[in-house]
Write a structure and sequence with these properties.
Layout: H1 4-13, E1 15-18, H2 24-39, E2 49-50, H3 55-60, H4 66-69, E3 75-79, E4 98-103, H5 105-108, H6 110-116, H7 119-127, E5 133-141, E6 151-154, E7 162-163, E8 168-174, E9 185-187, E10 198-202, E11 211-215, E12 226-228, E13 235-239, E14 244-246, E15 257-264, E16 269-270
Parallel strand pairs: 2-3
Antiparallel strand pairs: 1-13, 3-4, 4-5, 5-15, 6-14, 7-16, 8-13, 8-15, 9-12, 9-14, 10-11
């Protein structure tokens, strides 16, 4: 799956696409399982949280309740903007309302657990010389047709900070073809070599909102980004410091993806200020077991 040449490209450029990582049948199995999860979804109105990567929106939504902060060892539901009326009732079918599901599919849903801990994934991490990788979080992202929101330029290490840096990587797997029309990922090649300029932190106990940011994201020109379309089943490996984004989905085709983050835990400190924290119920599980 991952040759020495492709591994070297990942470390040099900050991301790499591998077509055919999953079969069509494997993708369909994951989609069938997530459909069952959505069918069973029941989120009380006072916990209905819209998800956004915009800083001000994050402080207003994710920072207003601990529903987001305590989702690391649970399966929780985060909605697109504008899918509720003034009474909190959905304006669209519930399967069309979700932005993402997170953040412990890798531990609590057997179909997703089997994939996340599969020999395919281990082969990649071993080729990248990871010694003691652990699974930090997982998400199923819907990118709904016509309403799938923009993901603004960011670095994953802003939200998943380690000391030293360079210990986080994302596995982003397309459950459907990801194109420029339906919101594929875009990257600034080599941007992972410049460190990070912003961090999202848990606010100290008793402070509100529950999240805060320090530092500031750089202003990036659109012409710095290169698109990374992939076919259904394709994998994009994402370095924790590479700058990436995706546009709004204005097409009639959704862009489902399953993504999870892995950390090299050997000689690594996970920040206690990160929004996401391991719990006694779910310590970050080791990949090599």
């Amino acid at each position: 799956m991952l040759t020495d040449q492709v591994a070297a490209e990942f470390w040099n450029v900050g991301y790499v696409a591998i077509e055919g990582f999953l079969t069509v049948e494997e993708c369909d199995s994951l989609r069938e399982q997530i459909a069952k999860v959505v069918d069973d979804m029941d989120v009380p109105k006072h916990l209905q949280t819209e998800f956004s990567t915009d800083e001000s929106e994050q402080l207003k939504t994710q920072g207003s309740t601990d529903y987001f902060l305590t989702s690391g060892d649970k399966i929780r539901f985060f909605f697109e903007k504008g899918v509720f009326d003034s009474k909190g009732d959905l304006l669209v079918p519930k399967e069309k309302s979700l932005n993402k599901i997170g953040h412990a599919l890798h531990a609590l849903e057997p179909t997703f657990k089997n994939l996340t801990c599969s020999p395919k994934v281990k082969e990649v991490t071993q080729k990248l010389d990871l010694q003691e990788p652990v699974i930090v979080q997982s998400m199923y992202i819907f990118k709904q047709p016509r309403i799938g929101g923009e993901v603004t330029p960011h670095q994953d290490a802003t939200f998943l900070y380690t000391e030293p840096l360079g210990r986080i990587m994302g596995f982003w797997i397309a459950m459907e073809d990801a194109t420029e029309n339906n919101g594929c990922l875009w990257f600034i090649p080599g941007s992972h070599k410049a460190g990070i300029s912003r961090r999202m932190l848990r606010a100290p106990k008793g402070e509100y909102p529950l999240l805060k940011f320090i530092g500031q994201e750089h202003n990036y020109s659109d012409d710095e980004f290169i698109s990374a379309p992939v076919k259904k089943g394709g994998l994009i490996l994402i370095h924790g410091e590479v700058v990436h984004k995706s546009g709004s989905n204005t097409s009639d085709q959704s862009r489902h993806a399953y993504t999870f983050h892995i950390m090299e835990s050997k000689d690594t400190k996970w920040s206690e200020e990160n929004w996401l924290q391991p719990t006694p119920e779910l310590p970050f599980p080791l990949l090599y077991t």
